[in-house]
Amino acid sequence: MSALLLFIFLFLIPIVLLLGKSRKSSKKVPPGSLGIPIIGQSLGLLRSMRANTAEEWLQRRIQKYGPISKLSLFGKPTVFMYGPASNKFIFTSDNSTLSNGQTQSIRRILGERCVLELSGQDHKRVRGALMSFLKPESLIKYVGKMDEEVRMHIQMHWQGKQEVKVLPLMKSLTFNIICTLLFGIERGPRRDELAKWFPQMIEGMWSVPINLPFTRFNRSLRASASIRDTLKELMDEKRVELEQKGANPHQDLITCMLSIYEQNNEVMTEQEILDNARLVMIAGHDTSSVLLTFLIRLLANEPSIYAAVLKEQEAIAKSKPKGEFLSWEDISKMKYTWRVAQETLRMVPPVFGGFRKTVKDIEYEGYLIPKGWQIFWVTNMTHTDGRIFPEPTKFDPTRFENQSAIPSYSFVPFGGGPRICPGYEFARLETLVTVHHLVTKFSWKLCSDNSFGRDPMPVPTKQLLVQIMPRNEV
C-alpha cells in the first residue's frame, strides 16, 4: 500500500498538476505586441491622434489582429477592445472583474480618489455626491444663472466683432460657467490664477509618465498641484461658511460635497473633494467647449440644419418677454437642437476613449487577459461603424429621433451604464443655452478648413476662425 502511495505521489500527482497548469494556460493572451518597455505604442497613438488619423491607426490593428489585441500604452500592458459588446462588458462589469483605472499620467495629475479611479462602495458614494448637485432636479435652479453667464460672454467677446476664434472663446465661456456655478468663484485674482494653470494641467493628461523637467507630464503635475492648493483654500473658506454662517449646501458643488453624508455619517474626505473638483473642472470645461466648437463648425457646413435650429430657437425666443432668462421648460423644447448636438458628438466625440483595469485574470472572447492589465476602449470606433450608423460620414441628426433604434452601447460619448458621465445633464444644459443665444444673434461662415487634430481633445485648424454677421434680435 505504501509503495502505491509513493508511486502516486512521485509520478501521478506531478502529471495531474502539469495537466492542470496546461489547462489553465490553454487560453492565450490576445494577439499583438507590447513593443518597447514603458513607451510601447504610446508615441504612435499620440502622433496619430494629433494628425487625426487615430481611427485609421486602430483600424489597421483590427485588420491585422481582429477586434481584440494587446499593446502597451502609457507604461502598462493593455488590451484594446472594439464593438458594442466590448463597450457593454467594459461599462457594466462590476469591481470584482474590472476596476476604474486610468493611465498613470491621468491618475497622478487628477489624484487617486477621483471617481474615475474608485470602485465599489467608494465609487457609489462619491458618484452619488456629484450627482446630488448635477442631476436635473438640482440643475433647474441654475438655468437663469447660466443664461446670464452666456449673455455676458457674448456681449464681451462676440458683439461688435467681425471675426472670432471659436475654440478659445468656448473654453473661456465654459471655464467661467464652471467657476461661477460649480465652484462659486467670482471674477478676480483667484479665477485668473486658475485660468493660468488650467491649460497646463490638461496638456499632460495623455502623456508618457516620465517626470523630467520640461516634459508635458512634469508641467501638468506642477499645474495640478497649484490648482489643488487654490481649491484647498477655497474649500476651507466654504467649510467655514457652511459650519458657522449656515450657507446653502447646494450653492455650489464644493459646498455640496462638504455637506454630503452617507447613512454611516461618513463625510467625503478632503482628498476626494479636491481630486473630484479637478476632474469636474476638466470634464465640464473641455467636453462642452469642444462640443460647442464643433457644433458651430458643423452648422456652418450645413445651412439647412442651421435654419432648422434657428427656427426652433426663434420660436422659443418669441414666446418670452424680451430680456427674460431661459427656463427649464424652454430647454425641454430644444429637441431638434439637442439631436444636432448628439450627431456632432457622434462625429467628433470630445473624449477619445478610456481605460479600465482587470482585478483578476479574466477570459473574454476566448482570450486570457491577465490581472492588472489595462482595458482600452475608443469612442469613435462604434460611432463610425457603417453597420451601426449607415453613411457614417454624413451629418444626419434624424438618427436620434428614435433613440431605441440605436443599438445599446454604440453611442457612447459620455460612456455608458452605471459609469455614464455624471455631468451629462450639465453639459446638455450648457450647450443648449449657448446655442440658443448664438444662433438667434449671429450667422457665421468658416475662415479656415475643416481639418483638426487631437491633443488629446479635438483641436480645429486655426482654432476655428469664423466670420460672424449679426442678426436682427427677436
Can you put this structure into words, describing what you see?
There is one protein chain. The chain is of the alpha+beta class and 474 residues long. The chain has one domain: Cytochrome p450. Helix content is 53%, strand content 11%. The protein has a 5-stranded mixed sheet. The protein has a 3-stranded antiparallel sheet with strand order 4-12-9. The protein has a two-stranded antiparallel ribbon with strand order 6-7. α8 packs across α18, α11 packs across α13 and α13 packs across α16. It starts with a helix and ends with a strand.
Keywords:
Cytochrome p450; 3-stranded antiparallel β-sheet; transmembrane; 11% strand; alpha+beta; 5-stranded mixed β-sheet; single chain; heme; disordered N terminus; 18 helices; 474 residues
Report the total helices.
18
Which regions have little confidence, pLDDT < 50, spanning 5+ residues? 3-25
Class computed from helices, strands and strand pairing: alpha+beta
Per CATH, what is the topology? Cytochrome p450
The helix fraction, in percent, is 40-55%
Q: What's the number of domains? A: 1
Q: Please indicate the percent range of residues in DSSP E strands (runs of 2 or more).
A: 5-15%
Largest sheet: 5 strands, mixed
Radius of gyration over C-alpha positions, nearest whole angstrom? 25 Å
N-to-C SSE string, H for helix and E for strand: HHHEEHEHHHHEHHHHHHHHEEEEHHEEEE
The rough form would be described as globular
CATH architectural label: Orthogonal Bundle
| Average of pLDDT | 85
Distance between the termini: 101 Å
Number of strands: 12
Strand order of the largest sheet: 1-2-8-5-3
* CATH domain class name: Mainly Alpha
- CATH homolog superfamily: Cytochrome P450
Binding site for heme: 421
InterPro entries: Cyt_P450, Cyt_P450_CS, Cyt_P450_E_grp-I, Cyt_P450_sf
Protein name: Cytochrome P450
Keywords: Heme, Iron, Membrane, Metal-binding, Monooxygenase, Oxidoreductase, Signal, Transmembrane, Transmembrane helix
